[in-house]
Write a structure and sequence with these properties.
With about 325 residues, this protein is of the alpha/beta class. It has two domains: about 35-125 and about 260-320, Periplasmic binding protein-like II (D-Maltodextrin-Binding Protein, domain 2); about 130-260, 3-Layer(aba) Sandwich (D-Maltodextrin-Binding Protein, domain 2), CATH 3.40.190. Helices cover about 35% and strands about 20% of the residues. The protein contains 13 helices and ten strands. The chain has helices at about 15-20, 25-30, 50-60, 65, 80-85, 95-105, 155-170, 185-190, 205-215, 225-235, 270-280, 285-290, 315-320, and strands spanning about 35-40, 70-75, 90-95, 120-135, 145-150, 175-180, 195-200, 220, 240-245, 255-265. Strand 5 (about 145-150), helix 7 (about 155-170) and strand 6 form a beta-alpha-beta unit. Helix 7 (about 155-170) packs across helix 10 (about 225-235), helix 8 runs parallel beside helix 9 (about 205-215) and helix 11 (about 270-280) packs parallel to helix 13. The chain is globular. The N and C termini lie far apart (about 80 Å). Residues about 1-30 have low confidence and may be disordered.
Length: about 325
Protein backbone atom coordinates (compact mmCIF):
# COMPACT_ATOMS: atom_id res chain seq x y z
CA UNK A 1 0.00 0.00 0.00
CA UNK A 2 1.48 3.32 -1.01
CA UNK A 3 1.93 6.17 1.36
CA UNK A 4 -0.65 8.91 1.40
CA UNK A 5 0.75 12.12 0.11
CA UNK A 6 -0.52 15.35 1.61
CA UNK A 7 -0.13 18.10 -0.87
CA UNK A 8 -0.08 21.74 0.19
CA UNK A 9 -3.09 23.78 -0.83
CA UNK A 10 -2.42 27.01 -2.65
CA UNK A 11 -5.16 29.66 -2.61
CA UNK A 12 -5.44 31.97 -5.59
CA UNK A 13 -3.94 35.31 -4.67
CA UNK A 14 -7.16 37.23 -5.27
CA UNK A 15 -9.21 34.87 -3.08
CA UNK A 16 -6.62 34.96 -0.30
CA UNK A 17 -6.64 38.74 -0.33
CA UNK A 18 -10.43 38.77 -0.09
CA UNK A 19 -10.43 36.40 2.91
CA UNK A 20 -7.84 38.47 4.72
CA UNK A 21 -9.76 41.64 3.97
CA UNK A 22 -12.92 40.43 5.67
CA UNK A 23 -11.15 39.01 8.74
CA UNK A 24 -11.51 41.57 11.59
CA UNK A 25 -8.35 42.70 13.30
CA UNK A 26 -8.01 42.42 17.06
CA UNK A 27 -8.70 46.14 17.35
CA UNK A 28 -11.83 45.83 15.25
CA UNK A 29 -13.07 42.91 17.37
CA UNK A 30 -12.59 44.98 20.51
CA UNK A 31 -14.49 47.90 18.97
CA UNK A 32 -17.47 45.61 18.36
CA UNK A 33 -18.16 45.17 22.08
CA UNK A 34 -21.88 44.71 22.52
CA UNK A 35 -23.86 44.74 25.73
CA UNK A 36 -27.49 45.06 26.74
CA UNK A 37 -27.69 47.08 29.97
CA UNK A 38 -30.98 47.12 31.82
CA UNK A 39 -31.76 49.88 34.32
CA UNK A 40 -34.22 49.01 37.08
CA UNK A 41 -36.49 51.96 37.80
CA UNK A 42 -39.83 51.82 39.63
CA UNK A 43 -43.53 51.67 38.92
CA UNK A 44 -44.76 53.27 35.70
CA UNK A 45 -46.58 56.06 37.54
CA UNK A 46 -43.57 56.97 39.67
CA UNK A 47 -40.57 59.28 39.28
CA UNK A 48 -37.94 56.62 38.57
CA UNK A 49 -39.62 55.20 35.46
CA UNK A 50 -39.51 58.41 33.36
CA UNK A 51 -36.08 59.15 34.80
CA UNK A 52 -34.92 55.80 33.46
CA UNK A 53 -36.09 56.85 30.01
CA UNK A 54 -34.03 60.04 30.27
CA UNK A 55 -30.94 58.12 31.37
CA UNK A 56 -31.21 55.53 28.62
CA UNK A 57 -31.96 58.17 26.01
CA UNK A 58 -28.69 59.92 26.79
CA UNK A 59 -26.63 56.72 27.08
CA UNK A 60 -28.02 55.38 23.80
CA UNK A 61 -26.86 58.46 21.92
CA UNK A 62 -23.42 56.85 22.11
CA UNK A 63 -24.63 53.39 21.08
CA UNK A 64 -22.70 53.12 17.80
CA UNK A 65 -19.40 53.91 19.51
CA UNK A 66 -19.88 52.15 22.83
CA UNK A 67 -21.91 49.14 21.72
CA UNK A 68 -23.96 49.46 24.94
CA UNK A 69 -27.73 49.54 24.59
CA UNK A 70 -29.55 50.87 27.65
CA UNK A 71 -33.10 49.78 28.44
CA UNK A 72 -35.24 50.90 31.36
CA UNK A 73 -37.18 48.23 33.24
CA UNK A 74 -40.23 48.82 35.41
CA UNK A 75 -39.91 47.34 38.93
CA UNK A 76 -41.63 47.65 42.33
CA UNK A 77 -38.88 50.02 43.53
CA UNK A 78 -35.63 50.35 45.44
CA UNK A 79 -35.76 47.24 47.63
CA UNK A 80 -36.59 45.07 44.65
CA UNK A 81 -33.82 46.74 42.65
CA UNK A 82 -31.20 45.90 45.28
CA UNK A 83 -32.15 42.24 45.17
CA UNK A 84 -32.30 42.21 41.36
CA UNK A 85 -28.79 43.66 41.16
CA UNK A 86 -27.56 41.05 43.62
CA UNK A 87 -29.16 38.25 41.58
CA UNK A 88 -27.84 39.54 38.26
CA UNK A 89 -31.31 40.31 36.89
CA UNK A 90 -30.35 43.95 36.36
CA UNK A 91 -27.10 45.60 35.27
CA UNK A 92 -27.93 49.03 36.75
CA UNK A 93 -30.71 50.35 38.99
CA UNK A 94 -32.06 53.49 40.60
CA UNK A 95 -32.08 53.07 44.37
CA UNK A 96 -32.88 55.35 47.28
CA UNK A 97 -29.74 56.17 49.23
CA UNK A 98 -31.15 54.91 52.54
CA UNK A 99 -31.99 51.49 51.11
CA UNK A 100 -28.61 51.29 49.36
CA UNK A 101 -26.73 52.29 52.53
CA UNK A 102 -28.42 49.59 54.59
CA UNK A 103 -27.77 46.97 51.91
CA UNK A 104 -24.08 47.85 51.50
CA UNK A 105 -23.41 48.00 55.25
CA UNK A 106 -25.59 45.00 56.13
CA UNK A 107 -27.84 46.78 58.61
CA UNK A 108 -31.58 47.09 59.11
CA UNK A 109 -33.46 44.81 56.74
CA UNK A 110 -30.10 43.60 55.35
CA UNK A 111 -28.51 42.59 58.66
CA UNK A 112 -28.50 38.95 57.56
CA UNK A 113 -27.90 39.62 53.87
CA UNK A 114 -25.27 42.36 53.36
CA UNK A 115 -24.41 43.41 49.84
CA UNK A 116 -20.75 44.52 50.01
CA UNK A 117 -20.30 44.47 46.21
CA UNK A 118 -22.95 47.14 45.66
CA UNK A 119 -21.40 50.16 43.90
CA UNK A 120 -22.47 53.70 43.10
CA UNK A 121 -22.33 55.18 39.60
CA UNK A 122 -23.69 58.68 40.27
CA UNK A 123 -26.14 60.57 42.46
CA UNK A 124 -29.15 62.30 40.96
CA UNK A 125 -31.91 64.33 42.61
CA UNK A 126 -32.92 64.71 46.23
CA UNK A 127 -36.15 62.98 47.24
CA UNK A 128 -38.12 64.38 50.15
CA UNK A 129 -40.61 62.62 52.37
CA UNK A 130 -43.93 64.11 51.34
CA UNK A 131 -47.09 63.39 53.33
CA UNK A 132 -50.44 64.40 51.85
CA UNK A 133 -53.14 64.34 54.53
CA UNK A 134 -56.81 65.05 55.09
CA UNK A 135 -58.02 68.20 56.89
CA UNK A 136 -57.47 67.99 60.63
CA UNK A 137 -54.06 66.36 60.27
CA UNK A 138 -51.46 69.10 60.61
CA UNK A 139 -48.38 67.40 62.08
CA UNK A 140 -46.82 63.96 62.45
CA UNK A 141 -48.39 63.42 65.88
CA UNK A 142 -51.85 63.71 64.32
CA UNK A 143 -51.19 60.52 62.36
CA UNK A 144 -51.39 58.38 65.51
CA UNK A 145 -54.00 55.68 65.03
CA UNK A 146 -54.72 56.80 61.46
CA UNK A 147 -54.57 54.95 58.12
CA UNK A 148 -51.71 55.71 55.76
CA UNK A 149 -50.58 54.45 52.36
CA UNK A 150 -46.75 54.48 52.27
CA UNK A 151 -45.94 52.77 49.00
CA UNK A 152 -45.90 49.10 48.09
CA UNK A 153 -43.87 46.51 49.92
CA UNK A 154 -40.43 46.45 48.35
CA UNK A 155 -40.41 50.17 47.63
CA UNK A 156 -38.01 52.74 49.05
CA UNK A 157 -40.86 54.86 50.38
CA UNK A 158 -42.16 51.97 52.50
CA UNK A 159 -38.67 51.41 53.90
CA UNK A 160 -38.40 55.11 54.78
CA UNK A 161 -41.79 55.08 56.48
CA UNK A 162 -40.84 52.06 58.56
CA UNK A 163 -37.69 53.87 59.72
CA UNK A 164 -39.84 56.88 60.67
CA UNK A 165 -42.29 54.73 62.63
CA UNK A 166 -39.41 53.28 64.63
CA UNK A 167 -37.95 56.74 65.30
CA UNK A 168 -41.26 58.29 66.31
CA UNK A 169 -41.89 55.55 68.86
CA UNK A 170 -45.67 55.45 68.87
CA UNK A 171 -47.12 53.43 71.74
CA UNK A 172 -49.08 50.23 71.18
CA UNK A 173 -52.37 50.95 69.47
CA UNK A 174 -51.26 54.37 68.24
CA UNK A 175 -48.99 53.31 65.40
CA UNK A 176 -50.68 54.29 62.12
CA UNK A 177 -52.10 51.40 60.12
CA UNK A 178 -50.15 51.00 56.88
CA UNK A 179 -52.32 50.04 53.91
CA UNK A 180 -51.48 48.90 50.40
CA UNK A 181 -53.18 50.68 47.54
CA UNK A 182 -52.40 51.46 43.89
CA UNK A 183 -51.38 55.08 43.47
CA UNK A 184 -54.23 55.73 41.05
CA UNK A 185 -56.70 55.00 43.86
CA UNK A 186 -55.08 57.16 46.54
CA UNK A 187 -56.59 60.52 45.56
CA UNK A 188 -60.14 59.20 45.60
CA UNK A 189 -59.52 57.34 48.88
CA UNK A 190 -58.20 60.49 50.55
CA UNK A 191 -61.11 62.60 49.37
CA UNK A 192 -63.68 59.99 50.48
CA UNK A 193 -61.99 59.48 53.83
CA UNK A 194 -61.21 55.78 53.43
CA UNK A 195 -57.56 56.62 54.19
CA UNK A 196 -56.15 59.54 56.16
CA UNK A 197 -52.77 60.18 54.55
CA UNK A 198 -50.36 59.09 51.87
CA UNK A 199 -46.56 59.17 52.11
CA UNK A 200 -44.39 59.47 49.04
CA UNK A 201 -40.65 59.95 48.72
CA UNK A 202 -39.99 61.92 45.56
CA UNK A 203 -38.39 64.90 43.90
CA UNK A 204 -40.17 68.21 43.49
CA UNK A 205 -41.99 69.61 41.61
CA UNK A 206 -44.11 66.51 41.19
CA UNK A 207 -47.16 66.02 39.00
CA UNK A 208 -48.30 63.28 41.39
CA UNK A 209 -48.49 65.74 44.29
CA UNK A 210 -50.24 68.36 42.16
CA UNK A 211 -52.86 65.80 41.16
CA UNK A 212 -53.51 64.77 44.77
CA UNK A 213 -53.78 68.34 46.03
CA UNK A 214 -56.16 69.32 43.24
CA UNK A 215 -58.66 66.56 44.06
CA UNK A 216 -60.10 67.99 47.30
CA UNK A 217 -59.13 69.85 50.47
CA UNK A 218 -55.84 68.18 51.35
CA UNK A 219 -52.58 69.52 52.75
CA UNK A 220 -48.89 68.71 53.07
CA UNK A 221 -47.81 68.23 56.67
CA UNK A 222 -44.36 69.16 58.02
CA UNK A 223 -42.05 66.21 58.56
CA UNK A 224 -39.90 67.52 61.38
CA UNK A 225 -39.39 67.51 65.13
CA UNK A 226 -36.87 66.00 67.59
CA UNK A 227 -37.43 62.39 66.48
CA UNK A 228 -36.80 63.32 62.84
CA UNK A 229 -33.73 65.37 63.84
CA UNK A 230 -32.29 62.30 65.59
CA UNK A 231 -33.09 60.08 62.62
CA UNK A 232 -31.33 62.43 60.19
CA UNK A 233 -28.33 62.97 62.45
CA UNK A 234 -27.76 59.23 62.82
CA UNK A 235 -27.89 58.54 59.08
CA UNK A 236 -25.23 60.02 56.75
CA UNK A 237 -27.42 59.39 53.68
CA UNK A 238 -30.30 61.56 55.00
CA UNK A 239 -30.57 65.33 54.81
CA UNK A 240 -33.15 67.97 55.60
CA UNK A 241 -34.77 70.05 52.90
CA UNK A 242 -37.90 72.09 52.18
CA UNK A 243 -40.74 71.17 49.86
CA UNK A 244 -40.93 74.42 47.85
CA UNK A 245 -44.11 76.44 48.35
CA UNK A 246 -44.06 77.78 44.79
CA UNK A 247 -44.25 74.26 43.38
CA UNK A 248 -47.82 73.83 44.65
CA UNK A 249 -49.08 77.31 45.48
CA UNK A 250 -48.58 76.83 49.22
CA UNK A 251 -48.35 79.71 51.69
CA UNK A 252 -44.90 78.59 52.88
CA UNK A 253 -42.25 75.95 52.32
CA UNK A 254 -42.93 72.66 54.10
CA UNK A 255 -39.98 71.30 56.12
CA UNK A 256 -39.02 67.71 55.52
CA UNK A 257 -36.06 65.40 55.08
CA UNK A 258 -35.08 62.96 52.44
CA UNK A 259 -32.69 60.82 50.54
CA UNK A 260 -31.03 60.87 47.14
CA UNK A 261 -31.74 58.80 44.07
CA UNK A 262 -28.57 56.90 43.18
CA UNK A 263 -27.77 55.08 39.96
CA UNK A 264 -26.07 51.89 41.13
CA UNK A 265 -24.46 48.71 39.85
CA UNK A 266 -22.21 45.96 41.21
CA UNK A 267 -18.44 45.70 41.64
CA UNK A 268 -18.15 43.03 38.96
CA UNK A 269 -20.03 44.97 36.27
CA UNK A 270 -17.99 45.36 33.07
CA UNK A 271 -15.97 48.56 33.41
CA UNK A 272 -16.69 49.53 29.79
CA UNK A 273 -20.39 49.72 30.52
CA UNK A 274 -19.94 51.67 33.76
CA UNK A 275 -17.51 54.06 32.07
CA UNK A 276 -19.99 54.69 29.26
CA UNK A 277 -22.82 55.44 31.69
CA UNK A 278 -20.62 57.72 33.82
CA UNK A 279 -19.13 59.65 30.90
CA UNK A 280 -22.41 59.92 28.96
CA UNK A 281 -24.35 61.26 31.94
CA UNK A 282 -21.50 63.20 33.55
CA UNK A 283 -20.98 65.28 30.42
CA UNK A 284 -24.68 65.84 29.73
CA UNK A 285 -25.80 67.64 32.89
CA UNK A 286 -27.66 70.27 30.85
CA UNK A 287 -29.57 67.58 28.98
CA UNK A 288 -30.49 65.91 32.28
CA UNK A 289 -31.75 69.24 33.61
CA UNK A 290 -33.84 69.92 30.52
CA UNK A 291 -35.33 66.45 30.18
CA UNK A 292 -36.45 65.85 33.76
CA UNK A 293 -38.16 68.41 36.06
CA UNK A 294 -36.71 66.77 39.19
CA UNK A 295 -33.19 67.30 37.83
CA UNK A 296 -33.57 70.98 36.95
CA UNK A 297 -31.20 72.02 39.76
CA UNK A 298 -28.68 69.19 39.28
CA UNK A 299 -25.01 70.19 39.02
CA UNK A 300 -21.97 68.22 37.93
CA UNK A 301 -20.69 68.26 41.50
CA UNK A 302 -23.96 66.81 42.81
CA UNK A 303 -23.41 63.53 41.00
CA UNK A 304 -20.29 62.72 43.03
CA UNK A 305 -21.56 63.87 46.41
CA UNK A 306 -19.68 62.65 49.48
CA UNK A 307 -22.97 61.18 50.75
CA UNK A 308 -22.91 58.27 48.32
CA UNK A 309 -24.21 55.16 50.15
CA UNK A 310 -21.62 52.81 48.63
CA UNK A 311 -18.21 53.35 46.98
CA UNK A 312 -18.03 54.47 43.38
CA UNK A 313 -17.35 51.73 40.85
CA UNK A 314 -13.65 52.07 39.85
CA UNK A 315 -14.59 52.79 36.21
CA UNK A 316 -16.88 55.63 37.28
CA UNK A 317 -14.19 56.98 39.62
CA UNK A 318 -11.73 57.08 36.74
CA UNK A 319 -14.20 58.98 34.53
CA UNK A 320 -14.93 61.61 37.18
CA UNK A 321 -11.23 62.14 37.79
CA UNK A 322 -10.70 62.74 34.06
CA UNK A 323 -13.64 65.19 34.09
CA UNK A 324 -12.05 67.05 37.01
CA UNK A 325 -14.91 66.31 39.39
CA UNK A 326 -12.73 64.28 41.74
CA UNK A 327 -9.03 64.34 42.55
Amino acid sequence: MGRAIVRPTFWPAALLALILAVQPSAAEENSKFRMFASVGTGETNGIYYPLGEVICGIVNQNLHESGIRCSRETTPGSVYNVNALRDGELEFALIQSDVAYDAYHGIGAYAEAPFPTLRSVLALHSELVTIVARPGIHELGDLAGKRIVAGPAGSGSRATWEAMVKALGWKDGQTPRTLDMPFDAIGNALCKGSIDASLLVLGHPSGKIRDLLSGCALNLIPVDGPAIDSLVTAAPYLKKGPIPANAYGLPADVPSFGVSAILMTTADMDGRAVSDFASSLGTEIKALQNKSPVLENLTAQDIVTEALPAPLHPAALEVYRKLGLLK
